[in-house]
Amino acid sequence: MVDKVSFINSKTLRKDAFVKVRGLLKFTNDLEVPGMLIGRIVRSPYAFADIKSFDVSEAMRLGAVVITPDDVPQKPFNPRLVSVNEVTFKDHYVLTRKPRYVGDPIAAVAAPTEELAQKAAESIKFEVERVYEPVLDPFKAMSVESPLIHEKIMKGDEWIEVKNNVAATLNYVEGDVDKAFREADVVIERFFKTGKRYHMQLEPKAVLCVPEADDKITIYTTTQTIHNTRILIHQIFGIPLSKINVVKVPIGGSFGSSIQTNVLVPIAVALCLKARKPVKLTYTREEDMLDHSNFTFNFRIKIGAKKDGTLVGAEFENILDVGAHQIQPYPLLGTSLGWFVSLYKWRNIRYIGKAVYTNKVPGCALRGYGAPEVTWAVEVIMDELAEKLGIDPVDLRLKNYVGLGDVFWGQGPTVRSVIKSDGVPELLTKGKELIGWESRGRPEDKKGRFRRGIGVGRGFHTSGAGGPISGEVIDYSGAVLRLNEDGTLEYITALQDHGGGTLDAHVKIIAEELGVPPELISLATATTENTPYDVCTHASRGTYVGGEAARRAAQLVKQKIFEYATRLLNRVVNPEALKIRYDEEVKQTIIYVEGSPDIKITLKDLARTAWQRNWGTIAAIVSYRATSAPPSFTVYYVEVEVDTWTGKVRPVRVVAGADVGTPINRDLVEGQLHGGFAMAWGMAFIEDTPYNPETGELLSRGLITDYKIPTAQDIPRVEDFKVILANTYEPTGPFGAKGLGEAAMNPAVGAIANAVYNAIGVRIYELPMTPDKLLKAIKEKEGD
Amino acid sequence: MIWVVKITFKVNGQPITLDVKPNELLINVLRDKLKLTGTKYVCGIGECGACTVLLDGEPILSCLTLAVDVNGKEVTTIEGISKNDELSEVQEAFMEEGAIQCGYCIPGFIIMSEYLLRINQKPTEEEIKEYLKGNLCRCTGYVNIIRAVKRASESRTTKTG
Ligand code: FES
Ligand code: FES
Asked: Which of A26-35, A667-676, A744-753 has the lowest mean pLDDT?
């Protein structure tokens, strides 16, 4: 038997690398069309105000096209379409008379040059009816004295009244927690708070909206979902879907920042409809920081365990600060719970989840959608529990984690499936050896200015949000695959690649299924016109869900190839007698009969003949819903060095372990882990966007001078960053693969925090762990 | 009347003469007027390095440079790094090492790495980090970027040495 060439295990260069290294890849901001106008947004300088009237006369005199709330549909929407309509909460308007944070868009202009547009935007005046004191703290927001940030919002198609600024709630109970705590040998309760991180994706968001001759509009924009962008524009403006085409443009990093339809899209559409000219709108960095940042999490976690380490119960209270508008915090209440229950077997659980409005930048998903935050808190409290019980932290985790054969519902209570692949024991054990776990020492024995510590954190992310039952979350994808007349292929998917190489993984999957080298499979431009629906690249579903859609498309194409080959190769009884593989010697894909080497045809000849003989095009279109969302497990062991004089922390060594099933592209998997760790480092020590308590303005004013992210100097030495991949196979995934993007980061902050503790013996429950917090804690512990 | 200044300079070897306003930034001239969109805008305030270009061989931030200041000089952008379709060692190495994810930061990194390797053929890891610390990347965690610079340095020294 001839050995099959495996593309999955071979190293290939990513398809877009060649244009990227030469600076030739066009992002939205790089696009232009003749006659296009440049748009600018007028933003509220008030955190909480009601506007009476606008004066746009000067802007009009300057020749700008101007829109105010009067010119746009006043129907609320939620920019992120992911939950089914009945549980989608809507409070956004294209432009608002009731700005609820500093930066809320209140008007917009478009003019032939940026300079003129800027002048026109600055010339717009407005009168306010009332200005309120900003409400910046979610706990204060819930008190009766606080004014309501929104009085009425829509839930699905119904208007509902907001009470105590609570945007959404989700509670859940399983078993009897109170009884469990009474019977537990050890109970620990802790409060945790995270920073309000900004995504700092390198590409500021942008949109170009072009009116077409036939009443259509074409939209090019920074997005993780072209289909949901199209549906939202349809919902807001009432334009039929068939008249809107959204083109997939490469995205300069996202991390969740474009999981929703960015609010500059409807603004640009409104300007474009009014001007009847193409309109381009791009954010400055400062505007981008006013557009989105993460939710802030306030947790109260109480857990109980028996002496032998068996967990008996957990209580989890989650107060989410959602900012001024809802970009799907309701499903986040569900996933927060999902991350929590799918980490460890608590056995009895009570969950109280509340999403609360404040006058801050609207929170949206940020890589992990709550998982880095929940996993940080859980991994810290598990570490404390291990210490109290006198059990090795790794053993405690192994004893209680949710793994093989267990029911798993990472994406929330309505998305359940059973775990079929689990590399946790392998990763925990291997990592332990690599980092030198046993010699990490105890904090009380560490002295001197520089102290080192080792910590562990484990976690997971789902591969998508699929499941056997149609729950509250929409999740399916699609693929189009066509065999060209010369034997090359064209693959089209609406699924966006954020840069992690998802689409290269798809190409490899197709290559593997068909025995066609990846170079011969092109990634064709995808639009909403030429692709089946794809919900969004989120929840690390790109490889698992999108990759399986691609594999199924390849399978269908293969069947048709075999049918044609049966006609061409006489003596072959039926298509089932055929096989396909790549032949290294002739450098061709061949269709052949096993054991009869002379009965064969190359794919190239087959494609050409089918065309010449009018047999028709071989193509497949697939729409695919996954019936599970298996966890990709990750484990981090981190060694840090704390400077007890300055409070600065340096990463010394990292062991990152991932269970992604079959790694489709090993080096891309590694790249995800490197990036995930760097982002975790930022979350642990530096990233936050504080506000001026009086004005509600961002203290940084959107300047990244005051929003640092990790640089090349904040990572360990290259050889001290080790990656291990578990030897697992996910039976439901394409060639055994699972997702990774978010799992790559989720447990890293917990590992870092535990390493800090192991070094200096103090725990910081409020992120980021800035030098001042660390120094204060050290001082409190050790005295002066 | 709008006050404009005529400037003459070279971009990627090509002589250019243009009218610019005295306050016009080089990044905008490159991107909007010359359509060299490989130079990226990320922050506009000199904090990210994505807009780095070479001016007479020295790296500068084009978002902080006035176009009038390049009069009579030579600018090299990312588009000028590869000759025809032939990539430089640095570009090759970035591809080989999987140092590219979304790619938005990459032009700035490549320009800076080209410069570093020109002045220091065999930089240590610390030197690489020192030179690249002003370039932000949110995707890669820098590990493969540093590997790529090391690799490019090795392939250069084997070629020349
Ligand atoms: S855009 Fe010039 S340094 Fe950021
Ligand atoms: S590759 Fe995306 S920012 Fe560097």
From this structure: A667-676
For residue A556, give both structure tokens.
């269908």
Question: Of A605, A624, A643, which residue constitutes the final position of a domain?
Answer: A624
A457-480: average pLDDT: 88
C-alpha to C-alpha distance for A294 and A90, rounded to whole angstroms:
18
Nearest atom, ligand 2, residue A201 CA: 3
Count of domains for chain A: 2
Q: Would A129 be classed as within a structural domain?
A: no
Residue A310 has which token pair?
Answer: 């068996």
Nearest to B98 among A203, A671, A678 (CB): A671
What 8-state DSSP symbol labels residue A527?
Answer: B
Output the six-digit token pair for A221. Answer: 């924009």
Neighbours of A142 (CB within 10 A): 17
- What's the confidence (pLDDT) of residue A1? 36
What is d(CA A539, CA A332) in angstroms, rounded to the nearest whole number? 12
Kindly state whether residue A521 falls inside one of the protein's structural domains: yes
CA angle A242, A246, A250 (to 5 degrees): 160
- Is A498 within 8 Å of B102 when comparing Cβ atoms? yes
Identify which of A500-504, A562-566, A660-664 has the greatest average pLDDT: A562-566
Q: Is A144 within 8 Å of A130 (Cβ atoms)?
A: no
Q: Is A362 helix (H, G, I), strand (E, B) or coil?
A: coil
Task: Indicate whether A447 belongs to any domain.
Answer: yes
Q: Any idea what the CATH number is for the domain that residue A565 is in?
A: 3.30.365.10
Q: Which of B 128-147 lie inside 8 A of A, CB atoms?
A: 128-130, 132-147
Which is the closest atom of ligand 1 to the Cα of B134? 3
Q: Which residue, among A19, A29, A36, A202, would best test binding to B if mutated, counting the most B CBs under 10 Å from its CB?
A: A202
- Given this model, what pLDDT does residue A2 score? 41
Contact A284, A248 (CB under 8 A): no
Measured distance CA(A293)–CA(B18) in Å, rounded: 40
**Residue A227 pLDDT exceeds 50:** yes
User: Residue length, chain A?
Assistant: 784
Please judge whether A675 and B98 are an interchain contact, meaning their C-beta atoms are less than 8 angstroms apart: no
Q: Give Cβ neighbours of residue A424 (< 8 Å, ≥ 6 apart).
A: A398, A401, A403, A458, A633, A635, A659, A726
Beta strand A489-492 with A37-43: parallel, antiparallel or unpaired? Answer: unpaired
Mean pLDDT of A774-781: 95
pLDDT of residue B156: 80
**Does the distance separating the beta carbons of B94 and A17 come in below 8 Å?**
yes
State the complex-level ipTM: 0.96
- In sequence order, the 6+-apart residues with CB closer than 8 A to the CB of A671 are A500, A501, B98, B101, B139, B140, B141, B143, B144
Nearest bound ligand to the CA of residue B60 = 1
E strands, A306-446, in order: 311-323, 349-357, 407-408, 417-418
CB contact under 8 A, A712 and B128: yes
pLDDT tier for residue B161 given thresholds of 50, 70 and 90? very low
Structure tokens belonging to residue B47: 């904090």
pLDDT band at A364 (very low <50, low <70, confident <90, very high): very high
Query: If you average pLDDT over residues A442-451, what whole number do you get?
Result: 96
Q: Quick one: A240 exposed, middle or buried, by C-beta within 10 A (0-12, 13-18, 19+)?
A: exposed
pLDDT of residue A12: 81
Range of the domain at A492: 17-24+476-624
Verify that A595 and A654 share a domain, yes or no. no
Q: Which domains, and CATH codes, for chain B?
A: 5-80 (3.10.20.30), 89-160 (1.10.150.120)
Q: Give the pLDDT score at A667.
A: 83
Does residue A619 register a pLDDT over 70? yes
Q: Is residue A42 part of a domain?
A: no
Q: Which of B42, B135, B140, B144 to mutate to test the pocket of ligand 2 (most atoms within 8 A of CB)?
A: B140
Mean pLDDT over all residues of chain A?
95
